Amino acid sequence: MQTNTLLTEPVSKIFFRYLLPAIMGTMVTSIYVLADTIIIGKGIGIDAMAALNIVLPLFNIFFGNGLLFGVGGSVLMSIARGRGDVKAGQCYFTVATLLNVVTCILYTILLLIFTEPIVKFLGATDVTLPYVLEYVPYVIAGLSAFSFSTFLQTFVRNDGAPKLAMAAVVTGGILNVILDIIFVFPFQMGMAGASIASVLGSATTVIILLFHFRSKSNGLQFSLDGFSFSYVTRIFTNGFTSFLVEITSGVVMFVFNISILEVAGDIGVSMYGVICNTAIIVTCLCNGINQAAQPIISTNHGAGLQDRIEAVRKLGLKTALIICSVPAIAGLIIPNLFTYIFLNPNEEILALSPTAIRIYFIGFFVTGINMFIVGYFQSTVRPQISLLLCLLRGCVLSILFVTILAPLFGVNGIWASVPLGEFVTLLIAIYFLKKPEKEVLA
User: Fold this and answer.
1) What is the pLDDT of residue 251?
2) pTM for the full model?
3) Where does the pLDDT of residue 425 fall: very low under 50, low under 70, confident under 90, or very high at 90 and above?
4) Residue pair 147/62 in contact by the 8 Å Cβ criterion
């Protein structure tokens, strides 16, 4: 446990020591998605890739569940430690672990009983259903590995072991890709092979993270001493924003796909696929910045060291702006670069690509800033504000603008909806940042 280091060591030194491991860890998540999509599409076929897309919302739920209790509990644990209340910190860790275990059991039972109705609700058809039913059983069996991989990452990182968290995620991700290739191509195991590879990758991450409990620096201990039901509600309330981030992305994608089909057809949806894949990478970069800053902010918030919190906030905002400006500028100058990365484009795509990417990528200039501010309010236990900003940028404003602008400006109105949502969210976020912080008891 390195609480004292987080309270005394120079802020910039701690932040950048946490930054690279955090970004590498989150980037592996995007590689998981991109590699699985490419390998299944190339090795099994288009229908199989469609089946994977149908199953992906389940992964959002499992990973989101780990973040719900992982971020919710670890933020409160760090704040309690910063105040010198180690007993409360251990209780938050224990309660969060139990909540994650119970919900994983409930998800498993629900999916085992209602597998086919659930996947049909998600969009499985007569063509894709056989592929889905080949893939899903292994996902159900391994859902605890998916949830605990994100859950343990947050606590291990908050307990002063960011390099171990990075090593666990990177190792699991690389193993997943290697096994994907082996199981799908030479072994010809089809969707079952791809599913097993994903489960084994996440299980490996969990196993490596568990080694932290054997280390001399481990400060995570199980204890319910001092427990009250308020621990449950605080964990849930504070972590719900992280869970919502996972869920809203699927909702927005569904709405955008429907809108784009109406005005631009399948070509427009293909173009949106290029944009979404790039946005996943940008989002992972932003999550890495947040995860680097969160333990420092939470611990110093608990200790009441506002000057150090302010220093982290300024450093995080600058880092987010610089990192996210790179893809934004690249999109403005050489937009077709991103199209060629993901597609073998025809003339129709190339005619649509430059305008689509230039409009959409403008929003990247503030995406990192908005996501960091959301994480800042979450780390200082102001979940109502973080939840509001998360909903605005992640779902509400995007859907509102696409509903208004698509009929007026066609497909260009759709591309403009997300950047507009980001800029409006930034104005609201600045308003909340300028309001004086009220004392919040953790």
Assistant:
1) 73
2) 0.72
3) very high
4) yes
**pLDDT tens for each residue of 102-153:** 999 999 999 999 999 988 887 777 878 898 899 999 999 999 999 999 899 8
> What average pLDDT does range 394-414 have in this prediction?
90
Q: What is the spatial distance between Cα 65 and Cα 243, in angstroms, rounded to a whole number?
A: 6
Q: Alpha-carbon distance 166 to 19, whole Å? A: 10
Non-local (6+) Cβ contacts of 44 within 8 A are: 131, 184, 190, 191, 194
Selection from 388, 381, 61 nearest residue 236 by Cα: 381
Q: How far apart are CA 90 and CA 289, in angstroms?
A: 26
Q: What's the mean pLDDT in 271-276?
A: 76
Q: What is the pLDDT of residue 439?
A: 44
- Residue 49 pLDDT: 67
Could you tell me the pLDDT band of residue 42, with boundaries at 50, 70 and 90?
confident
In contact, 212 and 164? CB cutoff 8 Å = yes
The CA–CA distances, whole Å, from 135 to 66, 209, 349, 417 equal: 21, 26, 32, 35
Checking if the pLDDT of 241 tops 90, the result is no
Is the distance from CB of 168 to CB of 205 less than 8 angstroms?
A: yes
What residue has token string 């430690």?
81
Tokens of 273: 């696929």
